[in-house]
Amino acid sequence: MRILHYLSEIDLSHGGVVRSVLDLSDSLARAGHEITLLTFEPRDLPPAWTENTRGSPRALSVPWPNFAKPIRRFDGGTLSSIRPLIAQADILHLHVPWEGTNVQLSRLACQMGRPYILSTHGMLDDWAMARNSLTKHLYLRLIARSLIFGASAIHCTAEGERAEVAKRVSRPVEVLPLILDVSLYQNLPGPEAARRRFPSLTGGDQTVLYLGRLFEAKGLETLIDAAAMLREGGRRIRLLIAGVGDPAYVGALRQRAAARGLGDNVELLGPVFGADKVSLFQACDLVVLPSTHENFGFVAVEALASGVPAVISRGFQTSSELERSGGVAVVDPTPRSVASKVADLLDRPEQRAAMGAKGRAFVFSWLDPARLVERYASMYERAVHTARRRDA
Questions:
Q1: Structural domain range at position 358
Q2: Which residues have C-beta within 8 Å of that of residue 36, sequence separation ≥ 6?
Q3: Is residue 312 classed as helix, strand or coil in its secondary structure?
Q4: Tens digits of per-residue pLDDT, 355-364?
Q5: What pTM value is reported for the model?
C-alpha cells in the first residue's frame, strides 16, 4: 500500500507526536508498504529517509508556509508540488488538528478522491480544548470542520481519548495504540552505564525518576512537593529529573526544590537518550509521572519496557490500559497521593520487581510492532475500500 504521511514539523523537541510518526512510518516501511513522509521542518529526519535508501520511508520537505500556526497556509506553488504525491498515494495520513496546512491537504485529497485519516494525538480532548478555549472552538467550527468531517476516520490512541473526542466529533473513530520501536529494549543494558554517567546514583539513596519534557502540564511541581512531603516524613530519597524545557521554567523548578528544603536531593540531569535512557530507567527504583494531561505516555511505556514500575496520574488517557499491565500504579495528581504511593512502593521491593516483570511482558504483547502494523494497514484498507465503494 502507498501511504503518504504529513506532519508539519519533524522536530523531536516537540515530544511524542514526532517520535510516534517516525516509528509508525519506519514500521510500515519495514513491513513492505511504500511510505512517504512529507514535512516543512525536516530537522530530525533520519538521513537514510532523504537518500531513498531501500526499505526505508522516503522523506520529502517543502517550503515553510505563510502565517503562523494554526492558520498557516501553503502558497499555490507548494500545493501544486504536493498534488502529485497525493495522487500517487492510496491514502493520506494527517497528524494533529491544529494545523492550517492540514486543512489545505485534506481539501486536495477530497478533490482528488483520496481518503485520509486524521490522528488527533490528544488535541481534541477536554484538557486540550480548555487551553485557549474560545480560539480553539472557533477554529474547530470555522476552519477545521471540513478537515474533521471529511476524514475517513479519526484515529485515537486509547479508549479514554475516544470517549472525549466523541463529545465533539461525529465521525468513525479507530483506536490503535502508537507504535514503539521496541528494539532498544530487547536486550537491556543494565544500570552500570547510567551509574558511571550520573555518580549520584551510587550514593545509596532510593531513587525516583521523572523523564520527559519539562513544562507545566507534566506535574513537576506536584512531584517536587511530594518529594518534600516524603523528606518531612523522615524518608531519604533522591529525585532525578531528566529532560529539557524553557530555561526560565527549569530555573523555577530549581527554586521550588530549594524552597522546599530538598537541596542536593533533587538533581536535574538534562536530556538522556538511547541506551543511556534505558540504563537510567534500570538504575532507578521507581519512575513517577504525575502529568495533568498525557495522551499516550511514551515514557511510562518505556519504563515498563525497561522492567521498571511506574506511578502515573489519572491524567493519562492510557491509564486504563497501563493499569491492566500490572506494572503501574495510578494516582490522583496531588502531592499527597503521589507521596503516599511512592512511599508504599519503595517499602515493597518484591512488589516493585513483580510489577516491573509484568509491565515489561505487557508492553511487548500490547505494542508488538508486527501485529500493530497489520492493524494500521487494516485501518487504511477499510478507508480505501469505503472511498472506492462511494465513488463507484
A1: 183-366
A2: 2, 3, 4, 5, 57, 58, 59, 60, 85, 89
A3: strand
A4: 999 999 999 9
A5: 0.91
